[in-house]
Structures are given as C-alpha cells and as structure tokens.
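Board notes (copied after class):
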Amino acid sequence: MLLYKKGRIPYFFAFTLFILSALYGLLIRWNFVFPIESFVYKNFLQSHSHVAFLGWGYISIITLITQCYLTEYQIQNKVYKTSLAIVMTTVVLMLISFPIGGYKVFSIVLLAVFGITKDLKGVGVDVKLIKYGIYYYLLSSLATWFLAVVLVTQGKTDLYYNTVYFYLHFLYNGFFVFTLFGLLFKIFKINNISINNNFQYNFFIYLNIACIPAYALSVLWSRVLSIFYVVGFAASFLQLISLIFLFKIIKSVFSQLKWNTISKLLLMFGLIAYSLKIVMQVFSSFPYFVEKSLALKPFLIIGYLHLFTLGFMSVMLLLILIEFGKIQLKSSFSKIGVYIFLTGILITELLFFLQGSMIIMGLGMFQNYNIYLLIFSSFIVIGLIFIYFNQFKNRVA
C-alpha cells in the first residue's frame, strides 16, 4: 500500500506541494536574515500559505473522503476527476504567481464538493463531521464571490478584510477541523475501537453550534459593537466544552489503540496543538488580548496560524495518511524525519510566542531571533524531505 500506486497519486502530489510550500516558508525566513534583492514578500507569503492548505490540505482530505465513503462507481464521476485536475493545475500555477489562482480556486470546485455531500452515505459521527465540514466549505466559498464585489465598490476596507476572514474562518475552523476529526473517527471505527456514543455526539454538537458564532472572533480587530465580544466568548466557551468531550474520547481510545509509538506521538502532538488553539480563542475574545495580538502580529498571530496549519492540520493529516497506508514509515530514515519535523514545529512555535511575550513584558527582542527561526524552520523542511524520499525507497524495495 504505497503512496504512488493506483489511487495514491493525489497524495504523492499533495505531499510534494507541502514540501514546496515549506520551502517557500523557509525562503521567507531566509530573506529576514539575508535580504534578497527584488524579493516580493507578499507574493511568496500568499503562495506559501495557499499552496499549503489548498494543495496539501484540500487535495489530501477530499481524496481521502471520496476513497473512504464513495463507491468505485461514484468516484469515476467525471465531475470529481475534472475538479481534482483543475485544483492540481491551479495550485501549480499558484506556486509561480498567487494571483493566477487566488481565493476563487475554491469556488471552481463547488459542484464536485456539493456532489460529495449527496453521494456520501453512512451513519455515525464521523459521517456527520465530514458532511458539516463540507457544508462549511460551501459557506466559506460565498466569500470568494462577495470579495470581488467589495473590492470593486469599496476597495480594501474593513469589510474587505472581514470577508477574507469569513472565508478563512469557515475554511479552517469549519472544513479542516470537521473533516480531519471525521476521518480520525473513521480510523477508530475501522480499528473497532469502542467509544461512548454520547461523548462523540456531544463533541460534534458543541463544536457545530460554536462554529458560526465563532466568526465573531475574526472581526474583533475592527471597530465592532461590544456584542461581538460577548458572542465570540460564548462561541469559544462552547468550543471549550467540546474539547472536554474530545479529551474523554481520546482517553477511552488510547487504552485500546494498538498503534506504534510514532502514530501515538503524532496524535498527541496534533491534539495538544488543537487544544492550545481553543484556549487561545477564549483569550482572544477579550479586548486586551485582541489589542496585544494586533500590535504583535508577526509573532502572536503568525504563531497562531502556524499552530493551526502545522501543529494541528498538517500533523493530524500526516497521521491519518499513515494510518490509511498512504504514507509509509517503515525505515529509520523516515521515522527520524517525523521527529525532526515535529521538533521544527515545536521550537518555531516556542520562538514565536516567547518573542511576543517578551515584548509584552517590555523585554524587547532577544538576540538572533530571526536566525534561530530560520534554523529551526529548516528542521520542518528536512524532516518532510526524509519522509518524502523514503516513499521512493519503498518503491524500489
């Protein structure tokens, strides 16, 4: 069951894009330490982030969903194949120039995604999570159409940026969170792991109820009424309750898991990152922390975004791909790669938040911050490359 056999090409393609995205991120860090002439920071940043969640995240998740929940006959539908081909082509172009794709790429594949919700059959919380994840994807796509209208009529006003945050909120906290947990629960089901149905259902219910009002947290940076802070806090508190039920689920699961050490490590790493994300959202509903976060965007907000995309989304997706047999970790080389990858994420996150905290406390910048960030960002790339080339080694064997 190797990455590049029949049905595994999209995963190989997505993982390749993940490494290229990471290389772009490393190049951005390099530019902070050793400035590059004519380096267009904004273009590289946009390509880096969008290729990560559109190329690595979206392609892997949608392919997993179709292979796990649709019949072979349904998968052969031309809509799905055409949609995947469009996304793959566009993401490659985005590596060259972000404006070629932009936010509208997600709107291109609406028909295919909507088709999945109709074709997806089955019962259980895993199915509910995936269905609602796709619903939130469809909701996020509305912003891609509205964005053009706002840009033409008003320019880059608060409404423009809040529309972008609408798109990102329902993409990140809707599509990615719901589908990743849905696929994780699917793995538990395949492994015949017994989980209290009430725990699963309550986790889904509280998470789902919180998702739409949690958008209020994304607009607190602009001048809004006090009610938005109240709604944001209520939503973050509901997410906190859902987290409690998630802990109960994982506690039950861990005693039954027969996974190897690396899979268990990836699970715990991803869940800790997710838990920190939830806790940070609770704090972000208070004006003091909103003000500090905005003032220290290069540290706290960037740190938060990396916590989600790397610490949670990428780690959980890597775990899921391993457990579904799409990525192999049979050699010491690849296993070392996982440890290097996780080390890079951990230390870069510590650097982001440590530096932000030091500034809040009036201690200023610590020496060689950008150099340390560059060094440990390279760990992320090196770790991924170790895992990546192990797949070729397995092919030869």
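Comment from the instructor: Residues 1-121 form one domain. Residues 158-190 form the longest helix (33 residues).
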